[in-house]
Amino acid sequence: MRSRWLRVNGYQLHWIEAGRGPAVVLLHGFAGSCADWEPTVLWLAEQGYRALAVDALGFGHSEKPVHAPYGLALQSDLYAAWLTALGIARAAFVAHSMGGKYALATAIRHPARVARLVLVATDGFVNPSPLTIIGGWPMLGEAILWLSAHPAVVRAFLAAAFHNPEPYVTADLIERGRAAISGAANRRALTALSRRYTATDLGLTGLRARLHEIRVPTLLIWGAHDRIFSLQYATTAHRELPCSQLVVIPHCGHFPHIEAVRPFRGVLSGFLASL
């Protein structure tokens, strides 16, 4: 597995990749990074795919510009330009939580670049919370992030995100979650991102009204016990995406690719086989 960097549209992006074959792009969720997908990247490479897990702008090892016009337009344009720079005409997108709305925006704004969509407990169908809006206030937003980075708070959030947290909320996972929202650069970038919530919301940007334009096969994977985005949002997404199928994994929370590895990979393998 290789770690790579490339300047795209003026911004430095980082990703990890492994394997050869049809391209599969993996997008992480909020306060995550490409590291969340490392085991899946290696597994996909073994299955005969070129797997690329990218750090979204403002996250992981990608650049964290304070004054970037964060939003669905910027992120989707970056992914399209990044694929062009790598010589990849089309790719399947596998996206978790926040990454799901970035993948949806890419499928709408750059349809020729997306061959398949796999949306795992996807964001995009939930109204922005007051905390999200408040998080964009410069001083208050950074203070909230500073408090949220306390290991006990990170542990509590992760425990709520898993149906059975004991085997999965490890010291390594807690540290990765803490590191994602720690440090001045991370906090400033996340505050800048929150400040532009109207540009990052699927509904407020008008992109949700265009979901019917997505005509590629779409797989929705949801944990039956997801307490972050409950099953009601899964049925909403399934209804609004015309070419979608919904798979609900029992005894699983917000991270099917971590908590239910075997069923997650089984469903994903069958869906990607036609590539």
Descriptive notes:
The protein is of the alpha/beta class and 275 residues long. It has a single domain (2-127, 197-272), classed as Rossmann fold (3-Layer(aba) Sandwich), CATH 3.40.50. The chain has twelve helices and eight strands. An eight-stranded mixed β-sheet has the order 1-2-4-3-5-6-7-8, sandwiched between helices. Strand 5, helix 3 (98-109) and strand 6 (114-120) form a beta-alpha-beta unit. Helix 2 crosses helix 3 (98-109). The longest helix is centred in the N-terminal third of the chain and has 14 residues, at 72-85. The two termini are 22 Å apart.
What secondary-structure arrangement, pairings included, does this model have?
Blueprint: E1 2-8, E2 11-18, E3 23-27, H1 38-46, E4 50-54, H2 72-85, E5 91-96, H3 98-109, E6 114-120, H4 130-134, H5 138-148, H6 151-161, H7 171-180, H8 184-195, H9 197-200, E7 218-223, H10 231-240, E8 244-249, H11 256-259, H12 261-272
Parallel strand pairs: 3-4, 3-5, 5-6, 6-7, 7-8
Antiparallel strand pairs: 1-2, 2-4
Helix pairs in contact: 2-3, 5-8, 6-7
Domain AB hydrolase-1: 22-260
InterPro entries: AB_hydrolase_1, AB_hydrolase_fold, Epox_hydrolase-like
Pfam family, one: Abhydrolase_1
